[in-house]
Amino acid sequence: MRTRLVVGNWKMNGGLASNAALLDRLAAGANSLARGTTLAVCVPFPYLAQARERLQGTPIAWGAQDASERAAGAFTGDVSCGMIAEFGCRYVIVGHSERRQVHGETDALVAAKARAVLDAGMTPIVCVGETLAEREAKLTDTVVGRQVDEAIEALGNEVSRVVVAYEPVWAIGTGRTATPEQAQAVHELLRSRLVGAGAAQVALLYGGSVKAANAAALFAMADVDGGLVGGASLDANEFLAIGGA
Ligand code: 13P
């Protein structure tokens, strides 16, 4: 059986004092999670040590928001998977639409990053999703299908070890959530591609303006196994309520 996974993506937010308060509130509230739900936070690199310090020994996992596909060397500003793994991270987000759009990351690079995360013993959360223009041009299935196929092809059998997050770009930070039916339609497509690759059990997360008020309806869909949560993960009560949905 697939279990529920709710991951917070802090993006480029936080500070030592506010993080401490947020992480401690999450740790204290971890007993309010729905049965079988795993909660995790993906924090900016400088706060990985703080996340480990505050969360180790609690049921809450932590991780990073990106990683280099390379192991080491003259790559100023990059952070390797080996470095991230040293901080006890379980997850690394790869291919978030903000990385694809702002930093020009391609499907091939995203797949290489996913491979590097797996090789370091962590779980990549591979993000896919269409823009508003692509949805309006009825290209959602083509775009999302291409993105997931690239990961399947590059990872082979190991694709069964990833998490996939469907994040329609038009729903991120806009307050405009996909309806549960819209999310399910794309998740069904993703599931069928993964089933074809022998990876039926991969957790499929929905992301894009998830909040406590809409989480239960989204999570009730057959192929929605949880959420990747941006803004609402910065508020402990809201995030815990999503984990309790
Ligand atoms: P919001 O929840 O703020 O829309 O962000 C979604 C997201 O991009 C999570 O990775």
Question: Which hetero compounds are present in the coordinates?
Answer: 1,3-dihydroxyacetonephosphate
Distance between the termini: 18 Å
Structural class: alpha/beta
As laid out across the biggest beta sheet, the strand order is 1-2-3-4-5-6-7-8
Principal-axis shape? globular
Secondary-structure element sequence? EHEHEHEHHEHHEHEHEH
Assembly state of the chains shown: single chain
Number of strands: 8
Estimate the strand proportion: 15-25%
How much helicity do the residues have?
40-55%
Q: Name the poorly predicted regions.
A: none
Largest sheet: 8 strands, parallel, barrel
Distinct helical segment count: 10
Question: Could you explain the architecture of this structure?
Answer:
The protein is of the alpha/beta class and about 240 residues long. It contains ten helices and eight strands. The chain has helices at about 15-30, 50-55, 80-85, 95-100, 105-120, 130-135, 140-155, 180-195, 210-220, 235-245; strands at about 5-10, 35-40, 60-65, 90-95, 125-130, 165, 205, 225-230. The protein has an eight-stranded parallel beta barrel, surrounded by six helices. Helix 1 (about 15-30) packs parallel to helix 2, helix 7 packs parallel to helix 8 and helix 9 (about 210-220) packs parallel to helix 10 (about 235-245). The longest helix has 17 residues, at about 180-195. The protein is globular and about 45 Å long. The mean pLDDT is about 95. The site of 1,3-dihydroxyacetonephosphate (13P) has 14 residues, from strand 8.
